[in-house]
Amino acid sequence: MTPMLVQHHPHPASAPPAADGPGRARDWAEIQERMLVPLYEAVYQHLEVGTRTRLLGLGCGSGLALLMAAARGAQVTGVDTDNARMDLARERLLPESGAGGGHRHGGTKLLYGRPAEAGDATRPAYNLVTAFQPVGGCGPEEDEEADGLAAALAAAVPMAERGSAVVLTGWGPPERCATSAVLRVAGRLTERLRTATSWRPALRDDLEEVAGRAGLRPDGSGRVACPFGYADMGSAVRGLMSTGLFDAAVAASDQATVEKEVIEALHPHVRADGTVWMANVFRYLVARTP
């Protein structure tokens, strides 16, 4: 599936800084998140998500993946620690719910917090757990992101039925991900901060290693084309900055410098009509709970 191009902005504006949670969350929801729609669709089709699915989405963000599962008839629960993105998820999935930390409506439940808080003795156990944050956003010296993901998955296991599917995702090989060259900007700039976490390509067995740490058993995988398409350079910068993968680079230098480097790295991907297009491949792993 080809991602939709976002609205054209003739005069590129600077992306909201990391501290601007609502602004960055809106950029993620309106520009960047849709690039992963082919990945979500491939996973749901592979696992035949439907009316019998009770899904727990870890790090559900602004809720697009949950919305797609709910459209297939699944009962969905989402949990995330990003309040700004969760506010947008509530707008999408629970438009009449009002404000607050946890919400339920029509089988859908959204929670601010960590995976352990998604347990609910009044509902049947989950039979699908998804973690759609792509592995490959952590530095080679410190694997904090992978450790955090493994811990989140381990916390979710007791809430799922035995043998339930658990889905992890990651970037594909760098030679098949045009965006890799742009994301390496983060690595170059964060060299100024020895302890900073920077982007690196996902290694072949990264997903399996994370699954193993969580006590899960790998049970198949797949690759999905997820091209990143933007209406113009300004949209591309805002979308990429909304991922959070450049935050350490901004801390090591400043936002203007990072955006300048990102724009330079994007130039080879600008087409004649001004749109920006990068072909990418993502990988997903299906594991099973013990």
TrEMBL record:
Matching Pfam families: Methyltransf_11
Top-level taxonomic group: Bacteria
Keyword tRNA processing: no
InterPro entries: Methyltransf_11, SAM-dependent_MTases_sf
Keywords linked to the UniProt accession: Methyltransferase, Transferase
One Gene Ontology biological process: methylation
Positions of region (Disordered): 1-24
An example molecular function term from Gene Ontology annotations: S-adenosylmethionine-dependent methyltransferase activity
UniProt KW Methyltransferase keyword: yes
Domain Methyltransferase type: 56-93
Protein name: SAM-dependent methyltransferase
Species in which this protein is naturally found: Streptomyces solincola
